[in-house]
Prior knowledge:
Blueprint: H1 4-21, E1 36-42, E2 47-53, H2 58-70, H3 72-78, E3 83-89, E4 95-102, H4 115-141
Antiparallel strand pairs: 1-2, 2-4, 3-4
Pfam families: DUF4268
Protein name: DUF4268 domain-containing protein
InterPro entries: DUF4268
Amino acid sequence: MFxxxxxxxxxxxxWTSFGKSFPRKxxxxxxxxxxxxxxxxxxxxxxxxxLDIEHPEDIAxxxxxxxxxxxxxxxxxxxxxxxxxxxxxxxxxxxIHRIYVPFEGKFSIYNKNTWRDCYEFxxxxxxxxxxxxxEYEDFIxxxx
Length: 144
């Protein structure tokens, strides 16, 4: 097992290596929609590309998720493996709406041999997610 310091160092190395190996400006939090953000996730057992909806106002949160549900068939055309989860529980215990594509390969942030495949998954998946957002941004914004 890794100590907290070793774990933090490995996580930092993972993200630094990703940024250096694949330099690119990602959309992530710059959607201009409050509580609507794209994220890369990597931990002990899994990796994924996510769209997290966690607007501080419950009604806006539900409206944004419903708007994305209305686009589900279109998103599945671009990302057939996408999962819509209306009650995704974060490690903190907080429940959010998460739309995500899981990395199906073997992965652990603690195993450097799995990093390259994960990076390639990120580079293949996130641009599709971003392009989808740009294409339907006006429609998504109409929700709130």
